[in-house]
């Protein structure tokens, strides 16, 4: 799954790194660096606006479509295996896809003394673009779920699943609302290679959602 991540690269820099035919619209106000982004909070994602321009916008990390019954699930993740066919997700997958910028994510490895958190990121430290879907909530604002896939590379040593991190050539088609054919999507959208990632153990301070600071990503000695 993907339950915590960090996002600290300035958004102007994120926009400059993207290979899109139209430059993304930046947030009206620069979001602060965050090193322990937790579900159930407002996060900044990239989606096409009403004018067809990719725009950074605030979305709730938790997906519950406005048409869902009261008390319906509010998942933070959607699996790549079911997102295109599940009634709960398929409409958003076809028409409302977005990208979540991240500099890395956290995952927990069970051990004899409890769960040890790890930070996972690209070996070259470049930002990640996590595939996500969104839908209008009952309050009229968008809520999203980050897609996950079976873990690969070093990520598989920590957890069975990982966020779907797209390569640079997949960003434009993923955001394109005109691309709705699932077979074309499979052929066009690709994840980063398994060898692109690195992982190391970090402090259990990250377990507490209110903790913040760059030191949360510092490597520590894993128990045992």
TrEMBL record:
For this chain, the family text in UniProt reads: Belongs to the SOS response-associated peptidase family.
The answer to keyword Protease applying to this record is yes
**The organism's place on the tree of life at top rank:** Bacteria
Identify the keywords attached in UniProt to this record, alphabetized.
Covalent protein-DNA linkage, DNA damage, DNA-binding, Hydrolase, Lyase, Protease
Might you give the EC number(s) for this enzyme?
3.4.-.-
Indicate yes or no for the key word 4Fe-4S: no
Q: Which organism is it from?
A: Halomonas litopenaei
Protein name (database record): Abasic site processing protein
Q: What class of enzyme is it?
A: hydrolase
């Amino acid at each position: 799954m993907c339950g915590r991540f960090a996002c600290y690269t300035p958004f102007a820099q994120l926009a400059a790194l993207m290979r899109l035919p139209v430059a993304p619209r930046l947030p009206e106000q620069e979001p602060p660096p965050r090193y322990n982004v937790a579900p159930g909070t407002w996060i900044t994602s990239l989606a096409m606006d009403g004018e067809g321009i990719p725009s950074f916008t605030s979305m709730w990390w938790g997906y519950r479509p406005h048409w869902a019954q009261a008390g319906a699930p509010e998942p933070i993740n959607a699996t790549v295996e079911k997102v295109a066919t599940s009634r709960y997700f398929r409409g958003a997958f076809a028409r409302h896809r977005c990208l979540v910028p991240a500099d890395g994510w956290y995952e927990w490895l069970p051990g004899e003394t409890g769960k040890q958190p790890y930070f996972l990121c690209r070996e070259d430290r470049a930002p990640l673009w996590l595939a996500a879907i969104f839908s209008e909530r009952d309050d009229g604002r968008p809520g999203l779920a980050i897609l996950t896939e079976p873990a690969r590379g070093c990520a598989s040593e920590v957890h069975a699943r990982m966020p779907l991190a797209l390569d640079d050539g997949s960003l434009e088609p993923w955001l394109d609302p005109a691309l709705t054919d699932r077979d074309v999507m499979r052929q066009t959208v690709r994840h980063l290679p398994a060898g692109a990632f690195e992982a190391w153990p970090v402090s259990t301070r990250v377990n507490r959602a209110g903790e913040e600071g760059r030191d949360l990503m510092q490597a520590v000695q894993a128990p045992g």
